[in-house]
Amino acid sequence: MNEPSSLTSRVTDLLCEALQIDPPPAEMDLIAAGLLDSIGFMHLFAAMETEFGIGVTAADLSPDRFRSVERIAAFVSAKQEQAGPEAESAEAATPPAAAAPASAEPAVLTDPRTGRERRRVAVSGVREVAAAVAECRAAAAGWAAHTPRERARRLLRLADLVEERSAEYVAAEQAGTGKPAAEAAGEVEQCADLLRFYAGALRTGRSPAPGGFLPGRESWVRWEPMGVVGVIVPWNYPLMMAAWRIGPALAAGNTVVLKPALTTPDTALLLARDAADALGPGVLLTVPGDRDTGRLLVESDVDAVAFTGSETGGRDVVARAGLRRVSLELGGNCPAVVLPDAPPDTCQGLVAAATYNAGQSCASPARVITLRENYEQTVEGLAKAMAERRAGVDFGPLNNADQAARYDRIVARSAARVEHVAPLAPPPGEEDGHWRPGRILADLPADDPAVREEVFAPVLTVQAADDHAEAVALANGVPQALAASVWGARADEVLDLAGQLDAGEVWVNCHLEQTAELPHGGRGASGHGTDMSVLALTEYQRPKTVTARVGRS
To answer: Would you call 334 a catalytic residue per the annotation?
Structure first.
């Protein structure tokens, strides 16, 4: 076994080679000196594997273990003792990636508008995720120590940078999603607005008022950050979903490791770049990658996980996160109840919401439910409105080949006897993209795949009910419970129905209209987290009650 002094010398040499630095004093704080950032950690961990045959695991990711040469040497010594006396002799024979597999080959990303390759991106593996979490852990105390005013000032600067570089963000968002320019520009604007909202919200008081709740005692509540939050977001709104999660998490005093979807890392990489300038190093980092990257992040040394995605993905996150805080926003398959006296623009409003972002929104209307007396009229109105919405002109393509195949599979299995298909109009040269037309499916059984499964595409099913009670039963008849809408003229009827719908968000005579001030979140298979509004801050904080004895007993 190596003596500590020998290990210290070997670690010093290893650091000099890995980081290309002069020999540091054994007690120097390498993180505070700026020598160990996310890239530095990555090089260090790789060098430790090569030199000592030691792989750094998620359980090892406390930055204090790597803060100085002395501490790294102590860490190596402890690892070797755990491995037993054969560890040293095995060093030379152990492959460098024995404990932590090397990063995967770069992923080939395609343009959803053309189906052709647009770029390649490195997939984050064990080393990259570990390095990012370690850097965020090292920055956590400093970020949390800022006063609310200082954190707000930095968040406002990040919002300014997003706006100043909006053209770059719009182009990046379009490249990954194929959205029309107007949609992408609106979402960039919403990202900046959300960051500004939380810059203000973090300075408001949300705790119970201090008071003498016990005899001779004074009590108050402190809201404290969780620490490091792992955020995983999907491909349908890459920038906006990131803002929904990182805005309150950062405002609450946490540092964040953001894992975007494999197909849409572009704007997340821009956010990390601009956050380094506006917020400081290690406060917001991005680890592009696939599902395995997300699993590595969930199992790493993060204190909480915020996940937006599918129900299957959410269940996997919960299983891996254990007892740590998890915030979930999952699928929608949302109903829209249309009464006979619904406003004249109801069908146009529903079709516009169902085709926004090509229907790839958890809160989009998916299942239209009418009474029998207005069923045929509603089907005709929806068909006419959908015929005027063309994929390639009015909305973009589906995001990827898997999503296009899902659309094709569900539509092919549907038993709908009435089907209205809108025209396709892809721009010249983009015919091979993931374009799918808008569809109205009617006269179909209650257990039809297009009803039971979330198509996540520009598709609306239409069902008829005998009365309000059956309409509510149909609306609440799927596992998801994220959002819904009611369309009618009588306030007593629509508000009564809105109260009976099992959903976290209900619109009346409109759909898919949201703002930073209002909470968004689901129930049941749609998850249990809260996005937006001041309520979202508590997703990333924990309360601490402090009670002090005052005066003489």
So the answer is: no
- Pick the catalytic residue: 49, 128, 329, 454? 329
Q: Are the C-beta atoms of 162 and 191 separated by less than 8 Å? A: yes
Comparing 33-42, 81-90, 134-143, 178-187, the range with the smallest average pLDDT is 81-90
Catalytic residue among 362, 430, 505, 539: 362
pTM, two decimals, is: 0.82
Given a contact cutoff of 8 angstroms between Cβ atoms, the answer to whether 369 and 470 are in contact is: no
Per-residue model confidence as pLDDT tens digits over 364-385: 999 999 999 999 999 999 999 9
Lowest-pLDDT choice from 69-78, 139-148, 492-501 = 69-78
Enumerate residues 6+ apart whose C-beta is below 8 A from 369: 335, 336, 337, 338, 462, 463, 464, 465, 471, 474, 475
The three-state secondary structure class of 285 is strand
Cα–Cα distance list, 61 to 45, 83, 176, 289 (Å): 11, 18, 32, 20
Largest CA distance in the chain: 87
86 is catalytic: no
The answer to whether residues 511 and 359 touch, using CB atoms and an 8 Å cutoff, is no
Is residue 61's pLDDT more than 90? Answer: no
